[in-house]
Amino acid sequence: MATVGRSIFRLRHYDCVGFDMDHTLCRYKLGAVFEMEYQALAKYLIEQKGYDVRLRRPLAEDVDFLHKGLVMDVELGNFVKLSAKGQVLRASHGTKPMTTAEITSHYGPLRSNEFLRQMADDPIEAIEGPLHRKYRPFKDYFDLPAALMCARIVDLLDYTNGNKPLEKYTFWRDVLCGLVEMFSRDNLKLNTGGFYPKIKRHPELYLQPCGERLKKWLTELKKEKVTFLISGSDPEYVQWVASYCLGTDWRNYFDYIVCASKKPGFFSGQRAFQRWNYTNSSGVEDEEIPLDEVLPATSKTIYLRGNWTQLKSSMSWCCGVDHPKFLYFGDHLIQDVLAADISRLDVVAMVEELAAESQPPKAPLIDGLTSYKRWGSFFYDGGFTEINNRQTTADPFEKMNTLWSNLVRKHARLCVAYIETISDYPSNHEFVTVQNGQNSDKFLGFLPGLPTCLV
Ligand SMILES: [Mg+2]
């Protein structure tokens, strides 16, 4: 039997500390954002693409369907919760749960196929490569409402087909167009479309301002370490969200600010940095920076695109350490956690589901973070008999058998729900975590504690 021991996490161990922005430093009121995004998407599909007006039903009626990490089998109209090995743990056709017989009739007795195994083996290739068109993971809070939209479209198409499934579904490209349109940079600049005008007019409904303690912690951190922000969002959006959540002086918290970073490619590629020309956004080209140039540390410049190698060597130069140690906070399990770990940053995974799945739950059901009846825990699934038949383990980390919790276990140092779990303490605080005493996994565990299902 595995022994459960203790391990220590020390922030002072690191020379450079970085952050993703959306859902990491700057948090959203998820329930409100989900409903707003869903309705914007419904409006687009009904008015632009001629879809059924019944798609306008409130998202909240099916909030239990929302579950981060669901994968859509695009042609069959199925939604699957995957294991770490790419096996179907649970599934639904549209919003209708599939029986074991239905699952095995589609995915065989092993409840998998070469594509699902490929997704589990190489999630970066799965979201960047052609597999993405056949199997689409809904992997973050920005695209999660689209999963319910797709499921409801399948329900309506089946209904008009005499309550029978179609041989092949082709609606996904319409939903994808709706998503691309909703978050397009043109809509951002012109303040048009279904998303930006709403969030800009009433940010208090959708965004959570950062507390004073977090801001103070960031200020102290910057005195001791090199701090950096790597956001995938466009600079105009980062500017706006960060100003609302952190204050108009938000740039002062960081030595380096990178926007439109195109993660996960940022961590592995060699794309050039550009300096954002924010003084004149109409027509003046952003200035490209040679790949061998050291980037000066300044909160005055917002860098665009770029690559980790150059940022890393610039930070090494900046802090005067040959091999500095990097810590990075991010919520996206592929773009942040997996990609940053491959580039040898230590990662703190921000998983809000942890708050919903701790005891007592710290997030309400409406937020779509818990789906006890439909999909079960984000971290563990005991529903699939073959997994149940394995010897039960006393090691809580061994139980992390879902595709996404296994990514956390393999690629993060820590899992927390919110950054305040760490920023509420001084930077020299020693965090004691639960640790598997038998192997030398880098994963130190959950703070402040395990989700209920792993206890
Ligand atoms: Mg994020």
From TrEMBL:
Gene3D superfamilies: HAD superfamily/HAD-like (3.40.50.1000). Keywords: Acetylation, Hydrolase, Magnesium, Metal-binding. InterPro entries: HAD-like_sf, HAD-SF_hydro_IG_5-nucl, HAD_sf. It comes from the Eukaryota. GO terms for molecular function: 5'-nucleotidase activity; metal ion binding. It holds the Pfam family 5_nucleotid. Belongs to the 5'(3')-deoxyribonucleotidase family. This is 5'-nucleotidase domain-containing protein 1. The lineage of its organism: Eukaryota, Metazoa, Ecdysozoa, Arthropoda, Crustacea.
